Amino acid sequence: EDYALGGYPDFMRKEMAEQPDAVRRALRGRLDERFATAHLGGLNMDARELRGISKVVFLGCGSAYYAGQLGAQLVEELARIPATAEPASEFRYRNPVVDPDALYVAISQSGETLDTLAAVQELQRKGGRVIGAVNVVGSAIARECGAGVFLHAGPEVSVASTKALTNMTVSFAMLALLLGRVRDLSAASGEHIVNGLRALPDAIDAVLAADEDIADIASQFAKARSMFFIGRVRAWPVAREGAQKLKEISYIHAEAYQGSELKHGPLALIDPEMPSIVLVPGDELLAKNITTIEQIKARGGPVIAVTNTDLPDGLADAVIRVPAVCAELDPIILTIPLQLLAYHTAMALGRDVDKPRNLAKSVTVE
Ligand code: G6P
């Protein structure tokens, strides 16, 4: 194990640090500058088949489900195909309507999660077209699907998924680009996404370099009993994943909300003991997110803003600044500081980050 850790204190730390290279591997040979698109040969689908897809449904458990939610947002935005994500663990219990023209994407780092495998089998029984988004080659879900996109994240040991999750989102950005370019996404918009994808590894490196600042912020808030993670539209899956990570490895309760929903209930919980992590991408919702922060501050709630743009001085109690790539892909970058925040909070509390209590890396039983 010492050898495998390669000098890192734990696997989560190592796997977070490996993300820039993992993303480079996911992109290798798949981006096409000339036609401003992506090639995903493992899908085994030609342009006509891709054009015939009526909707995209992402299925996964835990972090893979949140990656799917981010994927659905990307597919709707870039390809204008209706897309949703749902927990694979529920799928077979609710007698789902299976659409023969839909593309179902089964997402799994391990490729062995029983709930996700069972969803794949239910889909196949009902004539659904299902592909895998899997990290482990030769795993049960990869074999069952027979087609899909491998994540190329390399081995992931830590229970909390970091580099595999990042490569899921990168793969879905490529899928969305490909689906967009056989429909009505312009060459110029395609080029913008290709350039954004190419910029991701360096941007992730820049977030990782802010490690000490994030550790500092984490130690200030590690005594909290509960935290809110606030994000809207593109940043909504990021907030959900951030809350999940914090719960998994620090055992602090966390809940994700859209900023727009705060006034419909959760504002009642805001007080000086309840910190909110607010995601503030520099997109068209910037002003709305600033208002959200003001609403929380007015009720005495501490705010950590995670942003890729300049915010008014003194708006938040702490600011985590990350680079901007492009509005569509920025959610991928915003997930990284939340990993570090969860990691350092867990470390400040003396938790075993690689092996959180009651959890397994891959759940192969019902
Ligand atoms: C378990 C792990 C989670 C993981 C989920 C899906 O619940 O604790 O961290 O996200 O399984 O795993 P998979 O291998 O299918 O991506």
From TrEMBL:
Its main location: cytoplasm. It is found in: Cytoplasm. It comes from Nocardia aurantiaca. The keyword Repeat applies. This is Glutamine--fructose-6-phosphate aminotransferase [isomerizing]. Its EC number is 2.6.1.16. The active site is at K361. Residues 46-185, 217-356 form the SIS domain. The chain holds residues 247 to 612 of 612 of the full protein. Catalyzes the first step in hexosamine metabolism, converting fructose-6P into glucosamine-6P using glutamine as a nitrogen source.
